[in-house]
Amino acid sequence: MKSHNLKLYNTLSRKKENFEAINPPFVGLYVCGPTVYGDAHLGHARPAITFDTVNRYLTHLDYRVRYVRNITDVGHLQGDADEGEDKIAKKAKLEQLEPMEIAQQYTDSYHRDMALLNTWKPNIEPRATGHIPEQIALVEAILKEGFAYVVNGSVYFDVMKYNETNDYGKLSGRDLENLLTGSRTLDGQEEKRNAVDFSLWKNASPEHLMKWESPWGVGFPGWHLECTAMSSKYLGKTFDIHGGGMDLMFPHHECEIAQGNACNHQDPVKYWMHNNMITINGQKMGKSLGNFITLQELFNGDHKLLDQAYSPMTIRYFILTAHYRSTLDFSNDALQAAQKGYKKLINGLRISKLLKYEAGEAEKDEEQIAQVEQIITNAYRAMDDDFNTAQAIGHLFNLLKKINSMYTGQLKSAVFGEEIFKKLIDTFNTFVSDILGLIEEKSDHQNEMLNLLLQLYTEAKTARDYTKVDEIRAGLKEIGFVVKDMKDKIDWAYEE
């Protein structure tokens, strides 16, 4: 395994901790996936890209990662405190479809968008509805331990009883006394002993669409239950990393900790990681504010807040330009800057593959060699420091300066020596493609078309037909390309 001092910020301890995995290096990574009742939006993109990058980097370091990302297709209710309609069932009624049709429709669209963002598929992608027996067994275990109670066919987790021997609120920093004081009385809450108790299993009304037989009657599982049941099944009672958006820290992940401790008498997760939110022009994203933008709207530009369409790789690059724990503010200016930055890296990726080491053109330059070695070290240090992609990208641009200088002939490859030249190229390609997951977006037959236009450009320039030269330049610029007219060659690049 590659030797790296990897540190993760652990939400539970609120500090960076040295990451340690068992030997052989196996990592269990569980990430809360979407509730599939609508199209994927910016809020879905950030955790997907964040933990895809975590998975990519751990894999690059030779860890064997089992990445599990769940699909919530039952139990996530519209209202507060375990009341209201199931989100998928409500959507099914509106569209006059079966709930599983809704779940499948939006699961498929989510997968389509994740593929466009070039995220790796999880090793396992379990669904809540496919693990009802495991969830029922988990409720039975919690009841047996004395941390739950049954009322009218529903089962609730007894938070007060749990807190006598455990610390409910330790992940989010919430104080139980304050939670009890601040809890408002809601309709249907008279079943609970305390307002902070949460449902493990809910009794289903006759009109409820999604329901199953259980020892307590016909009902459906609570939202928090599914992740505990599925993570423990596929990763064990205790696993390495649990990820998700910070909006899930309370109550969802707090409840997972309680459920895991209640039946297994140990914390279920070693390292909790939470990505921060995306705001839009400084405001929280929400349908009521008119700033709710789906990924498909971003990709095709079909939203009143968008000045243009933004490609999937522009979105991916945009998300990676901020540390995952920082707030990321969306705006057209920010995305246009991201578009330029992405194209610079992809231009570098393209030309780096054209560069060949040419020995004997110049003497080795120890200062240049030391600079490259330090930049590479800095890029890895950034990723080792809690996956700081923002800093890593900055170091990649320093490598890109060396690549561009060799491409234009200002710097000879021989100054680095063959070993460091290869290390420079390999590191840049590995970071851009394998770790950050950025790929070149090009249309069918793009290279053939561009090469033909460059041939016509060269012929016009040789014939001193400068009107034609200007026409070709202008035409290429209009569709996002620029001619690179250098001393000894003519090439193209994406317009930045």
Automatic annotation (TrEMBL):
Motif stretch ('HIGH' region): 34-44
Gene coding for it: cysS
Reaction equations catalysed: tRNA(Cys) + L-cysteine + ATP = L-cysteinyl-tRNA(Cys) + AMP + diphosphate
Main location: cytoplasm
Entry's family note: Belongs to the class-I aminoacyl-tRNA synthetase family.
Keywords on record: Aminoacyl-tRNA synthetase, ATP-binding, Cytoplasm, Ligase, Metal-binding, Nucleotide-binding, Protein biosynthesis, Zinc
SMART domains: DALR_2
Biological source species: Algoriphagus winogradskyi
Residue positions binding ATP: 287
Gene3D superfamilies: Cysteine-tRNA ligase, C-terminal anti-codon recognition domain, HUPs
Binding site for Zn(2+): 32, 227, 252, 256
Residues covered by the Cysteinyl-tRNA synthetase class Ia DALR domain: 378-448
Subcellular location: Cytoplasm
NCBIfam families, alphabetized: cysS
Cofactor binding, per record: Binds 1 zinc ion per subunit.
Assembly notes: Monomer.
Cofactor needs: Zn(2+)
EC number: 6.1.1.16
Any single Pfam family the record assigns to this protein: DALR_2
Name by which UniProt lists this protein: Cysteine--tRNA ligase
Motif 'KMSKS' region, residue range(s) on this chain: 284-288
